[in-house]
Amino acid sequence: MAVGEFALIEQLQGRLGGGGKGVLLGMGDDAAWLDPAGQSLVTSMDTLVAGRHFFADVDPADLGWKALAVNLSDLAAMGAQPRWCLLSLALPMRAEGYSPWLEAFAEGWHTLAESTGVALVGGDTVATDGPLTLTVTVLGVAEQGIMRRDAARPGDLIWVTGTLGDAAAALDLAFVARGLPGYDFAGPATQAQALEARRLRPLPRLDFGRAAQAAGVACALDCSDGFLADLDHILKASGLRARVDLEHLPLSPALRDCIDQDLVRWQRWPLTGGDDYELIFCAPPSLTPALLNIAHSCALPITAVGQILPADSQPTESVDIYWQERPLALPGIRGHQHVF
Amino acid sequence: MAVGEFALIEQLQGRLGGGGKGVLLGMGDDAAWLDPAGQSLVTSMDTLVAGRHFFADVDPADLGWKALAVNLSDLAAMGAQPRWCLLSLALPMRAEGYSPWLEAFAEGWHTLAESTGVALVGGDTVATDGPLTLTVTVLGVAEQGIMRRDAARPGDLIWVTGTLGDAAAALDLAFVARGLPGYDFAGPATQAQALEARRLRPLPRLDFGRAAQAAGVACALDCSDGFLADLDHILKASGLRARVDLEHLPLSPALRDCIDQDLVRWQRWPLTGGDDYELIFCAPPSLTPALLNIAHSCALPITAVGQILPADSQPTESVDIYWQERPLALPGIRGHQHVF
């Protein structure tokens, strides 16, 4: 390391490295020293690369928010309480330097970190010849237990929090706005801002996740790869199948305005689009009243969109998709657009 | 994500994601669930970028070892016991794919992980248009307390474990071998292999760190940026100065063979060269017998190289460097060669 790196670390430390619950020693030493107060730990790590996970010209405040949010969403899916995080920034050289950029990044990060009680306790800052790359590790505590993806049971209802497809629609609109070939959706201009806000600043469902776990929900994961792909993770891990009623997938008013009965869009946005950061969870019907109460107290709608089915001895698709009570065959729905 | 990413994660999981002490739920869910058994936690994160922190054509087995080792070294400096880690791989697209590369990487990683009792519990795998970039987060437990960089006291002896400068000399030799302009050291061919082994497979000083902390050492850090820069971190954090006797810096036989009385090399390799991953620690002279006993039982030599001095009211250099009892003025010794 040399001067510039230390200066950036000190800037981050000054803006974000304040104390926090259970922080015995925060940023500035070889490692952080933390006190989980006898609780078990939950930890996850996510990496975002410019040009792949976000536009290189993203507002750094939005990036700061999202880098933390996508990690917190993993803790929400476990029903854990976030406490601490570490941040690695691989920064391409820029003639104008990173100081104002880091200030804005820290502001967006801080807004979410403060409201969710997460302290930055360490990390790294390096130079790269490649795109800006961020890696975040979050650490939380589990008060009682956790929710896991292999715990679905036949007969469970499949629920999702909030609404699906907004971020994927917003991404398409952003591609249209940038004139990318192949993106020719007629953009619903009046709704674009609402969709874009969901893409840029997802809200990790932490309160709901913790309350659902405490109420007895055993199976959840966060919806980041697209609803169908993520549900498939649950089904593979649990060794089960499912039925999903496509028209039940919850849509925001903005998305509903521009999706109508267009099945291509239903497939592209709420069914297989990514970056929702909602929770998918499975629970026996007996838990429905408790779950609706939790949803009400979190001011977060939840929607039952299907049901877990027993494993089939015949090798078939793991999800039967219905549209208004009729089985639906959609072409190519397993292929989610990503680089790897 | 799509197929390739999941396949790589499954491959890593299969090779490295086995259980471990305190692993309640390992790789494969949104997050890992860990039990620190009532102990406090120590955590650190480091990022390595191809072309900056390692040669892009590095043997992946060596890279796997080193990526873990440099992180474990941070825990060693705290006196912590490593338990778990998370690994993020940002991989450039390669026509030949990553499967054999990952196998070799996992082998090198596993060799060190197994001998130090560290379980891989999570991480991420993404594609990048830039260089291969690895980020590792390690988690350990502190049985009693930790060592920190701001805890030096006037009168403390300054000690280092092992030997300094090997990795820096090996890096210069590697540059010479690659014909980089400006690198014209006459390479000590017979010693090159020993030096290179130290550069490629550093040994985190975990046993010594834990024992030193338990014996009452309060101040330590790991020597990764170069001895002088790292000692300066201690002095700044502790608000103190130091005297260092340059000829006391411990050298390996291989390095001693090629350094002789060449002060430029003394300055360049053991004094300011990086990547040593030894521990620098400060302790009152009364601890010397106990420390020598620990060193003996760890089969790791330790060497006193100077002493902590009170803060000076005059603004001077924080370290007075002596060579055979005479003050030494070395040109440009504060500037360590790094990108930032």
TrEMBL record, chains A, B:
Query: Binding residues for ATP, per the UniProt record?
Result: G123, D124, R149, S224
Could you tell me which residue ranges the PurM-like C-terminal domain spans?
153-311
Pfam families in the record: AIRS (PF00586), AIRS_C (PF02769)
The PurM-like N-terminal domain sits at 28-142
Which GO-annotated molecular functions does the record name?
ATP binding; magnesium ion binding; thiamine-phosphate kinase activity
Which catalytic reaction applies to this protein? thiamine phosphate + ATP = thiamine diphosphate + ADP
| Entry superkingdom | Bacteria
Biochemical pathway: Cofactor biosynthesis; thiamine diphosphate biosynthesis; thiamine diphosphate from thiamine phosphate: step 1/1
| List of residues binding Mg(2+) 2 | D46, D74
Binding positions for Mg(2+) 5 per the UniProt entry: D225
- EC number(s) per entry: 2.7.4.16
Alphabetized UniProt keyword annotations = ATP-binding, Kinase, Magnesium, Metal-binding, Nucleotide-binding, Thiamine biosynthesis, Transferase
Give the residues the record marks as binding Mg(2+) 4: D30, S44, D74
Membrane-spanning segments: none
Listed binding positions for Mg(2+) 3 are D30, D74, D222
One further remark on this entry is: Reaction mechanism of ThiL seems to utilize a direct, inline transfer of the gamma-phosphate of ATP to TMP rather than a phosphorylated enzyme intermediate.
What family does this belong to? Belongs to the thiamine-monophosphate kinase family.
Which protein are we looking at? Thiamine-monophosphate kinase
Q: Which gene encodes it?
A: thiL
